[in-house]
Amino acid sequence: MQPLRGVTVVSLEQAIAAPYASRQLADLGARVIKVERPGTGDFARAYDSRARGLSSHFVWVNRNKESLTLDFKDPRGLELLRRLVADADVFLQNLAPVAAARAGLGARELRAAHPGLIVCDISGYGAPGPYADRKAYDLLVQSEAGLLSVTGTPEEMAKAGVPVSDIAAGMYAYSSILAALLERGRTGRGAHLDVSMLEATVEWLGFPLYYSLDGAPPPPRAGAAHATIYPYGPFTAGDGKVVMTAVQNEREWRGFCAGFLLRPELAGNPHYATNADRDAHREELGAVIAARFAELTSTEAIGLLDAVPVANARVNTLTEVWDHPQLAARGRVHEVPTPVGPVPALGEHTRAVLGGLGLSREDIDALAADGVV
């Protein structure tokens, strides 16, 4: 299903946050025109070459788009961009702070000229505010949002293994654009959406933020284990493989003691009777659980946990994820040709897009010769 067919998105985007948002729109059928710098393009194209010669970052967030190279600092390029935006439904950008507004592409100017346009600005910290002009990359925002303070081991903090702040901002931009399109369908009016990576990440902090309300101590860093629920974390089986195990309530705890630990009497031990008790005594209880896992292979352990039942999971490598049977059953992975398929080559669609604005081949050749496109 592609419900956004007929919707045009012009995106001045780079790196991850805005491209991730526009990729979701493209997957739903929107025409996404990605505006890139002539010659170099989105700098994420050069992050690495691990995806069969292409950047893994770029391949991830840029499928199903058209690439238009355009120097909007040149008056001719800016005029072409304005013409594209005039016919668009959505204008999305995550340039450096105030760069779009400085070029006359701010939300106020664009919406005054095009009342039906949805303008979505993605930034690191949002404006106004004392951080409005600060550069913001994912790890920096994870730090400012407090995510690093609750991630890692007791000895050392750690960043999330994926760009959480970029993804959070991209997803809020995506969902907000969908909501704005629905609202425009009722009222005919566009909207200005202002999404910051900081606010998106703070929202995703969830329970740790409220856990530490009013100056209370935050949840401790617990590595791969849950910070406040126990047992909920990794245990190593006798074959060296790690099984993630999650006991969520007292019924599961009783079943875990009887069916997995083979020690039903532990369920009534006052040190372990409630989750708060188990969390307070996780070191001594962890030794008991670890000893039982060491007696079993990972397959045996999972079989017993499933029989209780207690939720569990294998700790897969990325290679194993590519071959995951559930992903295969759902047809999740597809091979596509690149770079002239769903992932656009730099400037691949420049002539087609500008031709759609009425420019002749000679016009485009002249712009190309001057480095405008």
Describe the protein:
The protein has 17 helices and nine strands. Helix 7 (164-187) packs across helix 8 (197-205). A six-stranded parallel β-sheet has the order 3-2-1-4-5-6, sandwiched between helices. The protein has helices spanning 17-27, 56-61, 75-86, 99-102, 107-113, 138-144, 164-187, 197-205, 207-211, 250-260, 275-280, 282-294, 298-307, 318-322, 325-329, 350-356, 361-369; strands at 8-12, 31-36, 66-69, 90-93, 118-123, 191-196, 232-236, 242-246, 311-314. The longest helix is centred in the middle third of the chain and has 24 residues, at 164-187. It has two domains: 8-205 and 334-369, Rossmann fold; 232-314, formyl-coa transferase, domain 3, CATH 3.30.1540.10.
Strand segment tally:
9
- Assign the CATH class of the largest domain: Alpha Beta
Report mean pLDDT, rounded to a whole number: 93
CATH hierarchy: architecture of the largest domain: 3-Layer(aba) Sandwich
Spell out the helices and strands N to C.
Answer: EHEHEHEHHEHHEHHEEHHHHEHHHH
Beta fraction: 5-15%
- Whole-number tally of structural domains: 2
Q: Distance N terminus to C terminus?
A: 34 Å
How would you sum up the major sheet? 6 strands, parallel
